[in-house]
Amino acid sequence: MLQLLIILVIVAVVSGALGFTRLSAGAATLAKIIFAIMLIGIVLLLILAFMGIAILI
């Protein structure tokens, strides 16, 4: 999922520099959504780790 995020950010930057604003906006929106999902997942895993609940054995 991190690879997809990096690819979308690169696509957004390059397409924005070349003037493709709709493509750039779409890629940036998808990158924001994926980033938020990953951030929520990391926070949940950290909370569970501090509580001592091992779900990734």
| Helix and strand sequence | HH
Q: With helices defined by DSSP (H or I, 4 residues minimum), what is the helix count? A: 2
Q: What is the overall silhouette?
A: rod-shaped
For the sheet with most strands, the description reads: none
* Assembly state (oligomeric): single chain
Number of strands: 0
Low-confidence stretches: none
Supply Rg. Answer: 16 Å
Percentage of residues in helical conformation: over 70%
Structural class: mainly alpha
End-to-end separation in angstroms reads: 21 Å
| Mean pLDDT over the full residue set | 89
Beta-strand residue fraction: under 5%
Could you describe the 3D structure shown?
- It contains 2 helices and no strands.
- By secondary structure, it is mainly α.
- α1 runs antiparallel to α2.
- The radius of gyration is 16 Å and the shape is rod-shaped.
Chart the SSEs and their pairings.
Blueprint: H1 2-18, H2 21-51
Summarize the structure in short:
The protein is an all-alpha fold and 57 residues long.
List keywords for this structure.
single chain, 57 residues, mainly alpha, 2 helices
